[in-house]
Amino acid sequence: MEIRPNRIKQKIAVGEIAYVASGFTHPDDIDAFGPVGFDGIWLEGEHGPVDAGELGNLTRSCDIWGMTSVVRVNRNDRGLIYRTLDRGAQGIVVPHVNTKEEAQNLVESGKFAPVGRRGMFTSRQGYGVSNYFDLANNETLLIVLIEDITAVGNLDQILMVDHIDVFFVAPSDLATSMGHIGNLQHPEVQNTIDTTLARIQDAGRIPGTLANNENVARYTEAGVRFLLTGIGPWLTAGAGQFKDRAENGVRPK
Predict the structure, then answer these.
(1) CB 3.0-4.6 Å disulfide test: which of 44, 103, 106, 181 passes with 161?
(2) How do strand 68-72 and strand 141-146 relate by DSSP bridges?
């Protein structure tokens, strides 16, 4: 048995775009989404229902299609982070990383020695992999969320931390921390998002952000290589279009 490769890490390492979808809470739904061709599934453990007891089946459904399972945990806690990895996650997202020290804690929690201090236990990703501890660090994806204006102020130092794969600029909380709650399109917010993404790229690191059908082209042109999108707006738009065509469409002659 060989260790499962981390598809997102492979793509961003060569400058390609990694497509990640969120909004899934059941393994069957992830399985049904598999043929679409996305690179990863974002499993929501901060605001959503995902917990350790469900992660085995959720991550297995990602494994079937070679998609990277990325779990957002609800705090920057060492035990929580490595337990989430032990349950089969291939990637960890930590919210509200505002300092270099907080970013370093993710590395120490998510990587085995000599890089970090992750507890020595074979993840379900390592079952049958004889040299798992030699390979696991290379296949573990680590993401920090830049979602407070404090983090933007400390960005240069945060970017100095090695072994962080993606620096993800989260628009909603960032806008709130700037005094523009619910107003993501405020010019000050948009300028801060754009300049922060550019600073990440200029430092030679990988920027990520939340995108939708309307702004995804702008972000890819700006060099963003980790793109997260939620399936909720697609479902809403598709359902609305279906009803509109049923009620207002012209029947063919």
Answers:
(1) 103
(2) unpaired
Q: Is 47 a catalytic residue?
A: yes
- Determine contact, residues 252/231, Cβ cutoff 8 Å: no
Instruction: Say which of 47, 96, 180, 186 is annotated catalytic.
Output: 47
Q: How many CB atoms are closer than 10 A to CB 88?
A: 23
d(CA 21, CA 43): 9
d(CA 8, CA 12): 6
Domains in the chain, ordered, with CATH? 7-248 (3.20.20.60)
144, β-bridge pairs: 94, 167
Spatial separation of the C-alpha atoms in residues 150 and 4, rounded to whole Å: 37
Cis bond upstream, residue 114 (ω within 30): yes
Question: CA–CA separation, 29 vs 146, rounded Å?
Answer: 29
pTM score, whole prediction: 0.95
pLDDT beyond 70 at 188:
yes
Q: Assess contact for 196 and 152: CB atoms under 8 A.
A: yes
Q: Does position 229 have pLDDT exceeding 90, yes or no?
A: yes
Q: Measure the CA–CA gap between 32 and 28, rounded to whole angstroms.
A: 6
Contact between 142 and 116 (Cβ < 8 Å): no
Task: Tell me which residue has tokens 């990277």.
Answer: 68
- What's the pLDDT at 34? 97
The amino acid sitting at 227 is: L
